[in-house]
Amino acid sequence: MVVKIRTVKDVSCPFCGTLCDDLEIDVDIKTDLVVEVRNGCQIGTRKYFSSNPSDHRYMKPLIKVNGEHKEVSWDEALDKAADILVNAQRPLLYGFSSTECEAQSRGVELAEMLNAILDNTASVCHGPSLLAIQDVGASLATLGEIKNRADTIIFWGSNPVHAHPRHLSRYSDFIRGYFRTDGRNDRNIIVIDPRYTHTAQIADKYIKVNPSEDYELIQAIRAVLRGSELDVKEVSGVPMDDIKELVEELKSCNFGVVFFGMGLTQSLAHHRNVDTAIRLVAELNDYTKFLLIPMRGHYNVAGANQVFTWNTGYPYSIDFSRGYPRYNPGEFSSVELLLRDEVDASLIVASDPGSNFPAASVKNLFKHPLISIEPHKTPTSAFADVILPAAIAGIECEGTAYRMDGVPLRLRKVKDPPGDTLSDKEILERLIEKVKEKLGE
Amino acid sequence: MSLDNLILLTGRTISQGVALEGGKASRENVRACGICTFDADDFKKLDCLVGTPVKVITDYGEVVLYSTITEEGPHQGIIFIPMGPWANQLVNPSSQGCGTPTYKGMKAKVEVVKSGKVLGAIELIGRLKEA
């Protein structure tokens, strides 16, 4: 049998913050199934194939009746969802990082209408980076600058071989750039991590830091950079001689960059780690050009921060309960609210807090009505009272997403959404209409 | 056998990423995320075969996982669990006031449980619903 194929080129991959924009997707014209993905990493490729109908893909709206999910019409499902939200005292709208910017914008509109809490996944990943950048600013650049100019790359608490699989080949390591004509041979890769990660194994230098002691090491590097003598043999498990050697390496490079990940933001010192890393980078600019870029996880978490900020003034963990936006992540982040059992209904958009929040907060999430806008069965949607089946942004609908360096890229539609699924944007627009009806607006 | 005074780190792995896109209710997800990786020398002290279920205990919870030896070592005294439902039974929910939980650096101990069962993601998280 001859399979007729339609190829969509220059597709932006909706998986990680690297947002690779060179994918080629083959779709069977007759069945509208993805049959081939070129240029994608293992994870991105799998995401395209997972858009094909399967036993874990939701095709119709579902409502929980007597403990079982029952198929219903869109109208009935949206009506039930709107009822839950309108009747809640302190609803939480969470997620948004794996969808496109227009859907995120509708999320802000709905949150404001409901006087709700609005949060995105930055509150469990790079939230501390945002706090630190708000405190002390940051020396940032686009990934194109890094590709063309950077000769010293530090991966601190990040493991791109696993988490951003094409980052090294597209921007930071193997790629040839305008001033880095010999690619990998023109770059000095340094990895700082408690584990000898696969990224560390292909680096030029590996520095093993004790877990949760990054703050001390960064401060020691800053002290040595200023010419101070520290009266200790080692800091955070790193011998002083190695710290001095590292400082000389950093001072003498032409263009350096620190890519940092969850190793800094999710360990004990959180935003203080990032604060001090930013200050180190600023101080290195007395000697050479140095920058820093957070390794964002979800493909559009940077977009969620942008959209929330231009609508409310704040990037995540926003409380509308007083009718205007307030921002204090230590108080209004989803996990903090759930731990205090303040939330009495949740709308989860394109996210899975059931899997990704600490158990104590998930327990409280499940105590109250839960609505999930989600394409697939997840440990969150499986226990939702209402499931609104979504088309996957960047595969089944268009949109805009922000790469980890803040560059917006267009997401392409490569095939039609299956079954009765709708885009996140359309679902939220319909939900807004229902909520307006119920609020009498 | 058991091991005390370990530090638990959690984080991304490529298998975890592939499995979450392939279906979170799948056994593939259990094989990718329902595992605890040990430093090779630490694992010898446990005196068991790779794949033997172990119970990991922290101040915040406990969970049964398949044991395995790390490819990203040596990291004596550190155990690593890929991020996901299993790791999140063990992490420190406290954010020290910044809003983001402490997913890395918990003190942990490990016991070999030869008859233990590693639950699937939905079954494991379902226990929180019932609790």
Word description of this protein:
The complex is a heterodimer of chains A (441) and B (131). Chain A is of the alpha/beta class and 441 residues long. Chain A folds into three domains: 5-49, no CATH class; 62-122 and 299-439, Rossmann fold (3-Layer(aba) Sandwich); 127-294, Dimethylsulfoxide Reductase, domain 2 (3-Layer(aba) Sandwich). Chain A has 18 helices and 21 strands. Chain A has helices spanning 42-49, 74-87, 101-114, 127-136, 143-149, 160-163, 167-172, 198-201, 214-225, 240-252, 262-265, 271-284, 301-312, 329-332, 334-339, 353-356, 359-365, 424-439, and strands at 5-11, 23-28, 34-38, 62-65, 68-71, 91-95, 117-120, 152-156, 188-193, 205-208, 234-235, 238-239, 255-260, 289-294, 318-319, 326-327, 345-349, 370-374, 386-389, 399-402, 408-411. Chain A has a nine-stranded mixed beta sheet. A five-stranded parallel beta sheet of chain A has the order 10-9-8-13-14. In chain A, strands 1-2-3 form a three-stranded antiparallel beta sheet. In chain A, strand 6 (91-95), helix 3 (101-114) and strand 7 (117-120) form a beta-alpha-beta unit. In chain A, helix 2 crosses helix 18 (424-439) and helix 9 (214-225) runs parallel beside helix 12 (271-284). Chain A is globular. Chain A starts with a strand and ends with a helix. Chain B has one domain: Barwin-like endoglucanases (Beta Barrel), CATH 2.40.40.20. Chain B is 25% helix and 31% strand. Chain B is built from four helices and six strands. Chain B has a six-stranded mixed beta barrel. Chain B is globular. The chains are: A alpha/beta (441), B alpha/beta (131).
